[in-house]
Amino acid sequence: MLNPNSLLGSVGFFTPAVHRTQDGDRRATLLLEDGTRFDGEGFGATARRVGEVVFTTGMVGYPESLTDPSFRGQILTFTYPLLGNYGVPPAGGRDRAGLPVLESSEVQVRGVVVRGTTRPNHWSSSRSLEEWLAEEGVPAIRGVDTRRLTEHLRARGVLRGVLEVVDPGGARSSDEELHHAIATAPAYGKENYMAEVAPRRATLLGGPDRPVVAVLDCGVKASILRALLDRGVAVLRLPYDATVPARWDGRPVRGLLVGNGPGDPAELAPTIEELARPSNRPLPTLGICLGHQLIALSRGGTTFKLKYGHRGQNKTICFPDGRAIIVSENHGYAVAPASLKGTGLASWATNPDDGTLEGLRDGRGRTIALQGHPEGHPGPQEAGFVFDRFVEKVKRAG
Hints:
The protein contains 9 helices and 20 strands. By secondary structure, the protein is an alpha/beta fold. Mean pLDDT is 93; it is low at 1-16.
């Protein structure tokens, strides 16, 4: 009989194969602000980056996760122990609408932490994960006990850290130097990510016969825009601090969406003010992830930072009628339920694990918001009906 213990590594799960680069082993260090240190093998770029260290429990979809603008400013730990098996799509890939085939046109994370990697074996792969990260200038570390790191972050809460990868024979920085790098870097919630992830000018996607939905873009995923286009509306993609026009290209704007993005929602004063503008109230409005939080803030609600966030593809949300669905999530902030009193907004869904607010709606049904991602990518698409409901309201508004 097969001995099951022969399949287990010293940390309690199987030890994955490691695909090493041909330029020799590079050393890497991840140091957290509380002094916890992890050493391993470096890959990707030779660099040093400071960021908020977070983890995702997703088992698939690493190309989509790495290009999700919501991860801007963060060092991402993958709890799934083996990455790289299906490689990376060709660089610069675009769909028929001109959108990136992934969630944005570049890797958004500041660093990557994995247990192990393997060689790619997939028909659409053009390069390995290692090659991709090197091209994008993103350092990564493998050989880390990611279960220990995840348990540490769950116990202590999200911590800032520094990831350093050095070439063979290169000198590592001392712990004092690494601590100094963390101490002198700006706090995650105070960085201006909009200059890096938001568009600088308005663009219109979709045909001339479609109703127009304005999107205040704080770093929206390409899959959210695709979900709208697939449902027959045109998308007016606006900078995060733009004023929503009444008309565009001779057509009335009939709906408003604000999607995901990085950072502290309370810092996005221009977007909050625009969502609160009385002329926008009659528009059917949909908020997703960060947009869920911004809508609450625009009505007088408040948000708070979660201990370690919700990042993964297996998050449950429950509705008042007893239904429950699984959604993909990626957020570190949440709306305070008690702050909704007097805002005109009511709870629409909750998280059964920690009781956090997962959905909002107003009394007239013009505004709906979901903390999770109804587009999935990666992840389940059980919440796709949210797009259907929103687009139905947009088309009826015309």
